[in-house]
Amino acid sequence: MSATEEMLTNMLLVLARVEKKVDQLIQQTAPPTPADDEPIGRDPSEKYWTGASCKGLRMSECPPDYLRAYSKYRYACVFMARKENNPEKMKYVDRDEKSAKLAKEWAEYREALGYGNAPSTSSEPPSQTVSETLGEGSDIPF
Questions:
Q1: From the centroid of its chain, how far is CA 108?
Q2: Which among 44, 74, 79, 119 is placed 20 to 30 Å from 138, CA to CA?
Q3: Model pLDDT for residues 101-123, shown as the tens digit of each residue
Q4: Number of C-alpha atoms within 13 angstroms, CB side, residue 37?
Q5: Helix (H, G, I), strand (E, B), or coil: what is residue 37?
Q6: In a domain, 56, yes or no
Q7: For the CA atoms of the chain, what is the radius of gyration?
Q8: In terms of domains, do 126 and 62 share one?
Q9: What pLDDT does residue 109 have?
Q10: pLDDT digits (tens, 9 = 90+) for 45-97
């Protein structure tokens, strides 16, 4: 075997090991169930997102940047509802907290798989409460 052939063989072995590690990393993130793929009911306010609307799309179809803005917006809604202690807003806290968490997980998952920041139609997958995100006793960080 010539030096060139040996070098090519070694390169192919290295590529095979890298491919195997990438596959293992992708498999570590379990895809969410269809129930975790919520539709976007309302876009974040302009304070959080000024890009294209994803209203009506499922989280699996939204770009990671949008999902991060959506998550931040939902956490801000939860924070303000708790701060104001308004019963009309408090009834949405659990739903908003769940949506914020899911959006964050979807953003991380789609980013790990290399999806860009344009809406897509492919489906794939996505852990933290508002207190964990904001920290106990913190003022609104948004």
A1: 4
A2: 44
A3: 999 988 888 888 777 765 554 44
A4: 16
A5: coil
A6: yes
A7: 20
A8: yes
A9: 83
A10: 999 999 999 999 999 899 999 999 999 999 999 999 999 998 888 999 999 99
Provide the token pair at 97. Answer: 């907290």
| Encoded tokens for 115 | 């999806």
Burial class (CB in 10 A: 0-12, 13-18, 19+), 79: buried
Looking at the 3D structure of the chain, how many domains does it have? 2
Does residue 46 share a domain with residue 5? no
Provide the domain limits for residue 86. Answer: 39-134
Are the C-beta atoms of 26 and 42 separated by less than 8 Å? no
**Do 29 and 112 meet the contact criterion of CB atoms below 8 Å apart?**
yes
> Pick the residue with more confidence: 119 or 21?
21
Contact present, 121 and 74 (Cβ < 8 Å):
no
Q: Are residues 85 and 24 in the same domain?
A: no
Same domain, 21 and 43: no
Q: Is residue 6 part of a domain?
A: yes
